[in-house]
Amino acid sequence: MAEIPEYQYKFVILGNSNVGKTCIVHRFANEEFLDSSQPTIGANFISKRLEMDNCFYKIEVWDTAGQEKYRSLTPMYYKGAAAALIVYDISTSNSLEGARDWIKELHDHAPPTVLIGLVGNKLDLNRAVSKEAAGQLAQRYSLIHSEVSAKTGENILETFYNIAKKLPKAAAQKKKQGLKLEEPKNNSFCC
Amino acid sequence: MGDGQVDKYGFVVPRGNRTFKEIPPLKYMARMEKWENMLSNWENFKSNKLNLLKNRVRKGIPDPLRSRVWLLIADGLTIRSSYPKHLYFRLTNTEEEPPCINVINRDLDRTFPGHELYRTIEGQQSLRNILRAYAFFDTEIGYCQGMGYIAGIARMYMDEENTFWILVALMNNYDMRGMFKRGMQHVYKSFYKASSLLRQYESGIWRKLNDNDMNPQVYATQWFMTIYSSFPIETVLRIWDCFLLEGPKILYRVYIGFFKMNKNEFKEATFEGLLKKIRELESNCDCDLLIKAAFGLSLSHKRIAELDREYTVSPNMDIVKWSLN
User: Fold this and answer.
1) Which of A17, A14, A21 is nearest to A121 (CA)?
2) Which residues of A touch B216 (CB under 8 A)?
């Protein structure tokens, strides 16, 4: 039997405070709802191995702090990322505004190859942001839009699957984990 | 203890251990007596018997005296009396809202949600008042996530107004303000100092962490920004006792102590394995062993000052590669 290929991708979760970043990551990794989540200070890291379409995907996720003040810390998390999920809260009316700031931040500073997902969380609550408005925003900036609930688990795995599937396979052999922050020296390849 | 019951420190949902240190009754009574005596001769102890005071604080301030002693050692009351008498009242009664009020509001029911005080609207409201007042008091800082944990711990032990003044003391006299300033330079500098010291005192574990890119940045942001509030509550309190008396140096003592006491635990040398292990050891960290390890080494203020200078003037590139912003 042929060996099943394994690909490794780094994801970063961005978005304003209390949109549910940590709960999404926890639901993804542990398939349960994190009942009493607390504000993330700095960042957290988890990983999960998925099997789909006869491939293994090792997804590494950096979950970041949401407050604007922490933005000086976030670039190091998205710099080496293959994908970024920008999370907003569909139960809060101006939540897309926050997402827009993050889109701009990524477009300005992240490598253009980073695949960006726009993820509306809290689908279990009353909707204050229409699917159309978020869909339009996603289209305009070429983002992959989805709506999820970390509480019920709805669409969480699918969101990660859909993005992982779209990532280039060639450059995703197993790599060393961690945050490589220094510029590569004497190396001609780009990471 | 069954579900729904409140533990010794007010937690319904336990943080870390469910069992706490028990001091034998006679020893406890003797200790209380010493402390009462010390409190009635406070100025004398503070100026002439500081080493004795330090030793006693390192053993843990008796819980019923904690609020009083914290205020004394942090000079909370002195700071309070150096400002107009009704300043806190005026700040809380300001009609408009500070720009950061939404961030404050979003953190209220997420700050120590397992503690009985913060499970009530009154407790959350009280935290809101303190953080909101601080945002007016110090407009350059306003509110930064992390401050809620600090105020949250202090408020478990004292009333709202004194918590506000302890927060003012911590921010201004304990170097915490720099942690929350835009750019967070002070956080990076703490990482630099911590890592340099770990290399000096426990080079084996430092190398293992460093070889796997396990930098303080990955796991220690909350440790330094919130004075270890993510540790088990009893351990947090013991760290705070020492921190309030001895100052920011304690952050580094605890950091080295943590790795020193656990140095044989890090068997799996991968990024993920190390991070998991650190989190596991953090959430079960025994207060007595930690304090013993933290104070079982000699660390001078001079050395810390040297590293401060080094970071600014000519940082060591082995260490700084990740800590420069």
Assistant:
1) A21
2) none
B149–chain A nearest CA distance, Å: 9
Work out the number of other CB atoms within 10 angstroms of the CB of residue B275: 21
Does the model's pTM come out above 0.80?
Answer: yes
Instruction: Give per-10-residue mean pLDDT for chain B (325 aa).
Output: 77 80 92 96 93 96 96 92 95 96 95 96 98 98 97 98 97 95 91 96 95 91 97 97 97 98 91 94 96 97 95 83 51
- The answer to the question of residue A20 being in a domain is yes
Among A68, A116, A84, smallest CA distance to A14 is for: A84
B231 touches chain A (CB under 8 A): no
Domain B80-174: assigned CATH number: 1.10.8.270
* Chain A residues bordering chain B (beta-carbon distance below 8 Å): 17-18, 36-43, 45, 47, 65-67, 69-70, 72-73, 76, 176-182
Is residue B256 within 8 A of residue B206, CB to CB? The reply is: no
Over 50: is that where the pLDDT of A155 sits?
A: yes
Domain residue ranges in chain B: 21-59, 80-174, 183-323
